[in-house]
Specification:
The complex is a heterodimer of chains A (about 400) and B (about 230). Chain A is about 50% helix and about 20% strand. Chain A has about 400 residues and is of the alpha+beta class. Chain A has a six-stranded mixed beta barrel with strand order 4-5-10-7-9-8. In chain A, strands 2-3 form a two-stranded antiparallel ribbon. In chain A, helix 1 (about 1-15) crosses helix 11, helix 9 runs parallel beside helix 12 (about 370-395) and helix 11 runs antiparallel to helix 12. The radius of gyration of chain A is 33 Å and the shape is elongated. With about 230 residues, chain B is α/β, with parallel strands linked by helices. Chain B is about 35% helix and about 30% strand. In chain B, the strands form two sheets. In chain B, strands 6-7-8-3-9-10 form a six-stranded mixed sheet. Chain B has a four-stranded antiparallel sheet with strand order 2-1-4-5, with helices on one face. In chain B, a hairpin with a 2-residue loop joins strand 9 and strand 10 (about 220-225). In chain B, helix 3 crosses helix 4 and helix 3 (about 105-115) packs parallel to helix 5. The chains are: A alpha+beta (about 400), B alpha/beta (about 230). Chains A and B meet through helix 1, helix 10 and helix 13 of A and helix 2, strand 6 and helix 3 of B.
């Protein structure tokens, strides 16, 4: 039934080319908006995620939080309580095997064992609190690409120096090569040379973070074997949550995905995605309304033709097919044109830059939701044609002919 | 002569609000196979209603209809559609051609739509019919480029496409000039004589009726004796 119905549907669409072109253009415009919004939202999410995670880990593994436990014994009236000791430093002793386990997981970009702790940096009368990160010098850039952010000195941590942010260097009045006194939370003092000064652009990092080599950090924080945390970077930051859950289950360590450290950003991205879905839905609804109204008009205009077809014995199903196929063709062609136009628009906008050379819009042309646009629009157009098709199929032939 | 149509006691009452309006009041019509019959009567006499009932486009309020040996008044809508397609042909006062299709496609449409495709055999038959109705040189013309008489001849060819048992024509010459009307009537008579196709032609034109083999007259929804020619 469909081959000849397709011929009739095609002929109907071609009989009024201007109307058909306008109809397809309307659908294509809706799809272009759909693609643009989708690409923009994805681009924005990628940019924000990158800005937040570029200089930090996607998953952080730390020793499990110690919780006071009630120890119950059957038949004993008294209760024993296991107290949490805060005297013993929490650490990951089996960090080498844990790092090896993490490296086996798919989608891992890099893994770094670290010793972190608090300290003060002293220079003359100046004293600034600082968060120390002890890292393997060979994998310094794996989690945070510090060496690429240097504004002075070098990143050779094996030389036994310290890397500090440019704001901290300014507060202390030091520059590369000059000595500073480090006083750790464990009460260990060590005179270190400023090896390099970095600038991440994140104020708290540039003011309060410093890097040492892992071997140097061990005696300073009295951790001869273990590490305080293992930082994991992924190829796709969105995989952080499932990986964190998996690693927590496998190691018993506390595994925190980057989203949990940036809850407000996560909520903002979710809200943004929901807004985008709403706009996409409105685009789709406008397409459906447009196609349905055009086909309703077409049904009305062709009442007598439908009537005569029905009179000489063409079934209602055939008539329905003619209108459903018109909807399908309009939807499919409009969706393809819209996807191409949307991709072109996104490429054009991606090329626009601000005065400083950075992109004017954080758009991701390759993430325009093309398949969804194609499928949803075509289905929407077919859905839109169902009511006109049914009404055409139900036309009383005699009434239609007499009109 | 084999009886092709046997309609008995046909009644049709329309409701105009609460007011019942009887249009047919116990009409009996019988046609023999191969007859060319005129159904005549004044406007409002019930001719078109009777034709629509026999053509299964309208259900009668009462009565029975047997066409080619099959009782049809109680058929479902789907069966009525099939029956119309396979056994009946229609020619209306207005040609009702599909404007976006050629003459050949219009003629083949009643066969192609139910089959789902326009086969070469269907195209060939449509072309043969167009040659027969004198439109061999207009076969690939769009319907919109044909004259009124030519369109009506295409409509006759379309009515013949599925080799129907009975062809129902409602004022087939009503919208044509005298010359075109004459050509159309001649054509229907030829088809009737050569194919032994049965025609029931609804008309209020006595000249048309005069060219048919027999006439049935309707008056106020009843069959009445047909006046002798010249009366």
């Amino acid at each position: 039934m469909t081959v000849f119905a397709f011929t009739v549907a095609r002929r109907y669409l071609l009989s009024n080319p201007l109307q058909t072109i306008l109809l397809v253009a309307g659908v294509a415009l809706g799809v272009t908006i759909f693609v643009f919004i989708t690409a923009l939202i994805h681009g924005l999410a990628i940019l924000l995620t990158h800005q937040v995670t570029a200089n930090s880990a996607h998953v952080t593994l730390e020793p499990a939080t110690r919780i006071a436990r009630v120890l119950k014994s059957p038949g004993v009236d008294t209760e024993a309580v296991a107290l949490v000791s805060t005297f013993q430093r929490q650490q990951i002793r089996e960090w080498r095997s844990t790092v090896a386990l993490v490296r086996l997981q798919p989608g891992i970009s890099s893994v770094g064992a670290q010793i972190t702790g608090s300290a003060f940096l002293l220079k003359g009368e100046a004293s600034e609190p600082v968060a120390i990160t002890g890292v393997d010098p060979d994998s310094l850039d794996d989690i945070t690409p510090i060496s690429t952010l240097l504004v002075g000195g070098d990143a050779n941590l094996e030389a036994g120096g310290i890397l500090i942010g440019y704001r901290l260097a300014g507060d202390l009045g030091v520059s590369p090569g000059q000595p500073v006194l480090l006083r750790t939370e464990r009460g260990v003092d060590r005179l270190l040379a400023v090896q390099g000064v970095f600038k991440t652009g994140v104020q708290t990092v540039d003011e309060r973070v410093a890097y040492l080599s892992l071997p140097l950090a061990r005696p300073l924080f009295r951790l001869p074997e273990g590490v305080t945390n293992i930082e994991v970077k992924l190829t796709d930051p969105q995989g952080a949550r499932p990986l964190a859950a998996l690693l927590h289950g496998a190691t018993g360590l506390r595994a925190t995905p980057w989203q949990d450290k940036n809850l407000s950003l996560d909520e903002a991205l979710t809200a943004q995605a929901q807004t985008g879905q709403l706009i996409q839905m409105f685009s789709l609804v406008s397409i459906i309304i447009g196609v349905a109204s055009a086909l309703v008009l077409s049904t009305y205009r062709r009442r007598s033709e439908i009537g005569i077809m029905r009179a000489f014995g063409v079934s209602g199903a055939f008539v329905s097919w003619v209108f459903v196929l018109q909807g399908l063709m309009i939807g499919l062609i409009g969706a393809v044109v819209g996807c191409v136009a949307g991709y072109g628009l996104c490429l054009m906008l991606e090329g626009l830059t601000k005065a400083d050379g950075t992109p004017a819009l954080p758009i991701a042309p390759e993430q325009g939701g093309y398949l969804a646009a194609l499928v949803l629009t075509t289905l929407g157009a077919v859905l839109a044609s169902v009511a006109p098709a049914r009404s055409a199929a139900r036309l009383d032939p005699l009434e239609a002919i007499q009109q | 002569m084999t009886r092709l149509l046997d309609a008995r006691g046909l009644e049709m009452t329309f409701r105009n609000g609460d007011e019942p309006t009887p249009v047919l009041r116990g009409v009996d019509v019988q046609l023999g196979a191969g007859e060319l019959t005129a159904l005549i009567g004044a406007s409002g006499s019930g001719k078109s209603t009777l034709l629509s009932i026999i053509g299964l486009l309208l259900r009668p309020t009462a009565g029975t209809i047997e066409i080619a040996g099959e009782r049809v008044e109680g058929l479902s809508d789907a069966r009525r559609t099939l029956f119309r397609n396979s056994r009946l042909g229609f020619v209306f006062q207005s040609h009702h051609l599909l404007p976006d299709f050629t003459a050949t496609e219009n003629v083949a449409f009643p066969a192609a739509a139910p089959a789902g495709r326009l086969t070469p055999a269907m195209r060939l038959r449509a072309r043969e019919l167009l040659v027969r109705v004198g439109l061999g040189d207009r076969m690939d013309f769009p319907a919109t480029r044909l004259s009124g008489g030519q369109k009506q001849r295409v409509a006759i060819a379309r009515a013949l496409m599925n080799r129907p048992k009975l062809i129902l024509a409602d004022e087939p010459t009503g919208a044509l000039d005298r010359e075109s009307a004459d050509q159309v009537l001649t054509l229907m008579k030829e088809v009737n004589e050569q194919d032994k196709a049965t025609f029931l032609i609804c008309t209020h034109d006595s000249l048309v009726a005069a060219r048919c083999g027999r006439s049935t007259t309707l008056q106020d929804g009843r069959v009445v004796p047909t006046p002798a020619r010249g009366e």
